Amino acid sequence: MFNHVMLGSNDLERSRQFYDRVLAILGCTTGPSLSTTNSGHHRLFYRHEGQTLGISQPINDQPATAGNGSTVAFRCDSPEQVRAFHDTAIAHGGHSIEDPPGPRTLGPHSYFLAYVRDPDGNKLCAIHRLPNEPTAE
To answer: Which keywords describe this protein according to UniProt (predicted)?
Structure first.
């Protein structure tokens, strides 16, 4: 459904340092490619398993701001990976938000989640879907 997700940054080097470490937790071991738009603005692109995350200087020359109500969620393989994502994000300039990493139930589904904001304020979620327990009848 999606080709890529693009987030704005006011400091691409700070973002590179943050995302290099956080995305490595998810197995993204190749560093970002740098591209320059026709207008001279710079962007970082992280590619992993057919997915792309872009980090860009805003091309309208206004400050990058976090989207109110926006979240980018990263699929994790285990609760331990969710915790590692969260802890690595915090150690590299991110901020923990909402509840501490842990299980959540949303309707009939269970998840292990952590929410952080990157150094520019973009809201990120690390999510692992927990197996649904059979219901007793």
So the answer is: Dioxygenase, Lyase, Oxidoreductase
Mean pLDDT by 10 residues, the chain (137 residues): 91 96 93 87 93 94 92 97 98 96 92 97 97 59
Kind of pairing, strands 51-56 and 42-48?
A: antiparallel
Host H or E run for residue 23 = helix 12-25
Element spanning 80, H or E: helix 79-91
3-state SS assignment for residue 56: strand
Residue 33, domain member (yes or no): yes
For the whole model, what pTM was predicted?
0.89
For residue 12, what are the domain limits? 5-130
Burial string for 87-121 (b: 16+ CB within 10 Å, else e) reads bbbeebbbeeeeeebeeeeeeeeebbbbbbbbbbb
Asked if residue 137 is part of any domain, the answer here is no
